[in-house]
C-alpha cells in the first residue's frame, strides 16, 4: 500500500469496462493508482470515453475489443495486455450477457451464448491471467455474479445457471490458485442504479427506483460505485483471508421476505 493510492503501480484488467458497473470499477481502480486494461465488445464509443477519463487521471490504459464468449478473443485480449504491461495484478470478470426467456423457450444457442460469456470466460481468462500474475508475485480475481444464481427471477434461468457456475468456479479457483498467492472471490450486487435503470424509470408508470429503495433496508439502491468499492477492497491485503466467497452488496434487500 502506498500513501493514498493503494493500487499505485498495479495493473488491472476489467472485462466489459466500457460502460455500466465495469466502467465504475475501472475508474475506481484508476483513481486509486492502477493502470487499466479496458475491454468492450459492441460499444466502442463509451469505452473510448472511459479511456480518456482514465488517461486524464494520469494512468496508462489499453483498450481492447474482445468477445469474452470466444476463446480466441480471450487469448488476444491477454496477449495484448501482456505486450502492453508485461504482467497483471487484478482481473475483474464483469462482462455479462444473456438470453432472457422462460425455461421452456430456451434454445441451445442462447444457453451456449450466455454460459460462454458469463461462466466459461471465468475459467479461460484465469488460465491466461495466472501466469501474468505469477510474474508479479500474485494477484486477485474478482467476478461479478447476481442473486439469480440461487434465487428464481423471471426469464432469468440461463443467466442464473451461468452465475451459479461462476460462483462454483470462484470456489475451485480460490483453492487451486491459493499457493500462487492469488486471491479469488465474487461480488453479488442487488439491483444497481445504472443509466439503463434510470431510463426505464423515466418511462415506467410507477417509480421503480423509489419502490426498490423502499424494499431495501439501507433505504436506497446500490450504485456502481458501491460495487466498485467492494471489488477493490477484495484486491487489498486487508482482504487476504477472504477466499472463494460471494460477497453480497445489496443494502440488505435479500434479507427480507418478499
Ligand atoms: N445492473 C444490475 O442491476 C446488476 C445486478 C447484479 C449483477 N449485475 C452484474 O454486474 C455486471 C455488470 O452489469 P451491468 O448492469 O453494468 O451490465 P450492462 O449494462 O448490461 O453491461 C454489460 C457489459 O458487459 C459487456 N459485454 C457484454 N457481452 C460481452 C462480451 N461477449 N464480451 C465482452 N464484453 C461483453 C458490455 O460491453 P459492450 O457494451 O461493449 O458490448 C458491457 O460493458 C454483470 O456481470 C451483471 O450480471 C448487474
Question: How is the topology of this model organized?
Answer:
Elements lengths: L10 E4 L5 H12 L3 E6 L3 H13 L4 E5 L5 H15 L4 E4 L14 H27 L4 E6 L12 H21 L4 E8 L5 H9 L4 H7 L9 H10 L12 E4 L9
Parallel strand pairs: 1-2, 1-4, 2-3, 4-5, 5-6, 6-7
The structure holds NADP nicotinamide-adenine-dinucleotide phosphate.
Give a verbal description of the structure:
A 7-stranded parallel beta sheet has the order 3-2-1-4-5-6-7, with helices on both faces. It is globular, with a radius of gyration of 18 Å. The termini are far apart. It has 8 helices and 7 strands. The longest helix has 27 residues, at 108-134. Helix content is 44%, strand content 14%. With 258 residues, the protein is α/β, with parallel strands linked by helices. It has helices at 20-31, 44-56, 71-85, 108-134, 157-177, 195-203, 208-214, 224-233; strands at residues 11-14, 35-40, 61-65, 90-93, 139-144, 182-189, 246-249. Bound molecules: NADP nicotinamide-adenine-dinucleotide phosphate (NAP). NADP nicotinamide-adenine-dinucleotide phosphate (NAP) binds at residues 15-16, 18-22, 39-43, 67-69, 94-97, 117, 144, 146, 189, 191-192, 194, 196.
Task: Describe what is shown at a glance.
44% of the residues lie in helices and 14% in strands. It is α/β, with parallel strands linked by helices and 258 residues long.
